[in-house]
Structures are given as structure tokens and as C-alpha cells.
Design goal:
alpha/beta, Rossmann fold, TIM Barrel, 13 helices, about 30% helix, globular
Length: about 425
Amino acid sequence: MAMPKLAPQAPVAHDKLRALGILALNGMFDEMDALSVLRYAVSDVLPGDLAIVSSFGADSSVLLHLVAQVDPSMPVYFLETGKHFPETLAYVETLKKTLGLINVHAIHPNPDDVKRFDPNGDLWETDPDSCCHIRKTEPLEPITEQYGGWVTGRKRYQTKERGVLPHFELTSDDRIKVNPLAYFSDADVIEYRQKHNLPEHPLYAKGYKSIGCAPCTSVVAEGEDPRAGRWRGLNKKECGIHFDFNGAIASPMTAATRHTLWKDGAFIADPFHEWTEESTPATASYKHVPLPVFLANRDAFLATQHPLGLLIVPGDRVEDVEADLGRFASIAINFPAFSDGRGYSTARLLAERYKYAGEIRAVGDVLQDQIPHMRRCGFNALVVTHEPTRQALIENRLPEVALFYQPVGLTEVPVGTRPFLRRVS
């Protein structure tokens, strides 16, 4: 079934009253009253603006049974990563039929991203965080942006990070996450499943107590934590889709920390991190590598499949990496000062001469008066920390540039010239 195309919801301006409203919601319900939490969220909190994200794992039938009681036509999204057990895919169909769910959609990763960053299908072995980002976080983000909130099946007992999980969360982008099963224990889940005679995941009886992608899921021994089989042996407990942008459970009271990456008309979570002294070419992932570091370790960087970015500072020659530009998912150009305009020329070289089609982002001293010029030169992303500039972007009140002396492309005409005398090269 094709996914419905909905207009993206405009982010709600964050204020204390909204945060206090979330706090009040969390005081309205008994800890175990999951059905009432979901019903109220659907009917009063976000009517018609709420979706479900389900893994169709070992205990997913409980949340989906609640959905079926409240509204079986509610949108349910399943991340079809391409790495699931065949039994999980069969379980999706079983639950759809058994529970009468009529609005279930599979979300697939971008095939170009998979081909580029995981051509052999083994990225999970060397960089599971990047694998999750490509196959889960990236595909899900444009879906969740269509809604004012979404429902999860997370529970407090599952990890230490989830130990403070409330029924309602306010995230940093002012959306609401609803967690009806937050206070359920593993025993509560089993009891509910048995009480309502819900179909069991085919792998559950074989010892798989928490089920995700096949390569990163293993059997749980008697007495082990149910999630011990997820990413066994790795310092990893979450795939990333439930993180607020700073990697933590969103506070039910405040969401003060903000995104700084402006792209496609909104401030969004930034998957990239700064290159540090501890970074190495073999393990670097979602890092903006300084151009000299890349040149000094070119073979090592080209030998890996990790997503990479490139950092260019004034004085760097982008010409030196012309042949390797396709290796980078993002190129960050640093503006060390408002008055330093060398970054504009670099962006134009990338966009016009080298036809680089990836992300060109401005970092450093990025102020609102520069942004119209940056956009003309090819920048399509900005890292903005200056508060007045942030507000100008959010409120769409940037200054306009009607006159200019240096044209971009073939259509602009500089001040003081006659258009008909311009030669087209």
C-alpha cells in the first residue's frame, strides 16, 4: 500500500505553557492505564495528527492491540530495513490480519544511500550506528515530520536511559511522543499477551526476547535481560530513532537544547560531528574531515564505507580533492569571521565548476546578512548558533539582495551593465 502524502506540519513555537501542559498530561493517568493514555492522545491531544511506529518485534502485539481498540485505521509505520528476519516480515502480515489493522506502511531506506555506504550489506559489522542511521533514522525522519506526534512501544524497564520514561514526552522540536506502555514490565507484557490471546512472534519461543534486525539480534539466555540479545557485545542500546537530538530521552518538562543545522526550511538534527584528535580514518563516521587530514590519509579514507564529510577552511584548495568529491555526503565550508568572503568562492567552485550535488553547508560565523549571498553561491545548509539569525530564519524575515556586482550563473545581471551585451559562454 502506498504511503499517504501529507503536508508537513509547521513546528509549534516552543513555550513554557506547552511544556507545562505535557507535565499535566503525565499526572492524569494511572501508571498502567495504557489504553486510556492512547485513547486520550488520539482524541484530545493530537486528533488526526498522530502515527504509530512499530518494530513488529517480540512484544509489539500489545501496543498494536491497543491501537486496534482505539482506531484500527491509525497510520502504523514499520521500518523495513532490509535486514529483518523472514519471521518478522511474516509476523507483520499475521498481526495486520489478526488485529484488523488497515493502515500499515513499510518504510524502506534510500537505495542510493545503501548502495553508497553499505554496498556489501555488512556495515552493521563495522559501524552499527551508521547502519541504523541509514536504514532507520534517515527514512523515518520525513515520515514523523508529517505528524504532530507519534506513539512508541518503549518501556522503562528496557534500558537505563528509558528508566525515567513518561507517558508523554515533549521533544526538542516540539513534537509529542506518546508511550502508553512506559510503566509495563516484561511480566506485564507477557500477561497482557496471554490474556488477549495475541499471536506470538515466531522467534520468541526460540529464545529471542527482543527482536530487531537479524544481524544484530541474538538469543537471550535464561535469566538474562530481555534486551541483552540486541547488539550483544557492543556499547549500544538504541538504534537512534528514539533519541532526542542530543542522544537522550526527551524531558517531559523542557526541551531547552536546540538544533543548530538549518536545512530544507527547518532546524533539524545533525548526524555529523567534529573531527577530533581521537578520530581515525579507519573508524571515522559522520565526521567532517579537515581537507589536509583527508589528503594525508586519502587511501585509508577511500577504503572505508563510513559516511564522511569534508571540512574546508580559508586557504584550502578544493581543487586538490576534485577527483574525490563524490566520497563526501556533506562539505562544510568555514567562515572564521563575518568579513572573510573566501567561502563564497569555494561554494561556487563546488556547485558550478565541479557540479557537486551533495550538502554544502556553511559553518562558523554565520549571520543573517550573509545568508542570501550564501544561498546564491550554492549553500543548501547552515549551522547557526547566533540567536537573532536563528529567529530570522524561523520567522522567514531574512534581508533581500536586489542589487549585486558579481553575478552567479548566466541569468543574473550585475549593476551598471547592459544585459544584451553579456556573452553566454
